[in-house]
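Lab meeting notes turned into a lecture example. A postdoc, R.K., suggested we walk through two folding results consecutively so the class can see how the record format repeats. The first protein's sequence and structure tokens come next.
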Amino acid sequence: MCEISNYLYFDNLNDRTIKIIYWISWLFEYEKQYHKNNLIVAYRNNKDIDKKYNRDFIWILWKIIIYHSNKDNKSFVNKLLKMYKFNYTRGSKKSKSSLIITAILLITNPLPKIKYPISKIKDEQFMLCAQQSLKCNMNYLDLFQKVVINS
């Protein structure tokens, strides 16, 4: 868990998203191999899930993810956690791991910020883009026809 937290904290590390996902998958495999899919940790109070699941290690991971989220992505991460908790069982823990990975991606690879209002594109710029797109399509068509004719 410490490795995951460190990779979330230091944003200048190479391939940190891949390394975080590696450690998460390692935790799932460790739980499967050595704890018969039931790695027990200290009790965590989660009002949205059944009390018998409050000792699963996954809540520590979610606590780390929530801690490292910021004002731009916190609402999305909280919604992902809510989706993860919905109908949670030990059997669904790994199958819902895509929600964990999505939360990690929101933190490590944030979406670009778009400033509003979006400035209007001038007609000359639009026409230039359209011409370039048309040239690209024509070149692709020529290439495609050459490949089909030669094969």
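The second example is placed directly after the first for contrast:
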Amino acid sequence: MTDDRTTGTLEQGSPGPAAPKPNSGLRQLDRLVGTWELSGDAEGRLSYEWMEGGFFLIARGDGVQGGNTIKHIEIIGYEHAPGREPADVLTSRIYTNRGDTLDYTHELTDKTLTSWLGPKGSPAVFRATWSEDGNTLTGAWEWPGGGYSQTLTRISG
């Protein structure tokens, strides 16, 4: 009996290793899919789409905050190193046109989104509330000595 890597099954028809499945917690991110207008102390546009396979949500942003034009991509999901169990914490990493790499930890509920720069409990935190129809997310970033407010409004998706 030989392993056929192209079909994922053994030569005699026995099933091969089970294909991994995305963490069920990712479904809560469906509400972000689409394009959003960003207004307030930061302005611009954000778009979210699922990466093929459904393991990660990809965000692309183009905006101005504090007089700086910032473009970024963000990969959102649950870390899963080969040979290990998937993490149970929703995280993301942002890469910017300014060379920044930023790591975040997130929690979503039906009514709120909380994002920490770094690990949960970090003093740099974004807290926001969803509108009843899910088409607006209003909140603010806060950190010791600063912060700014922003509103995301769905324009498509």
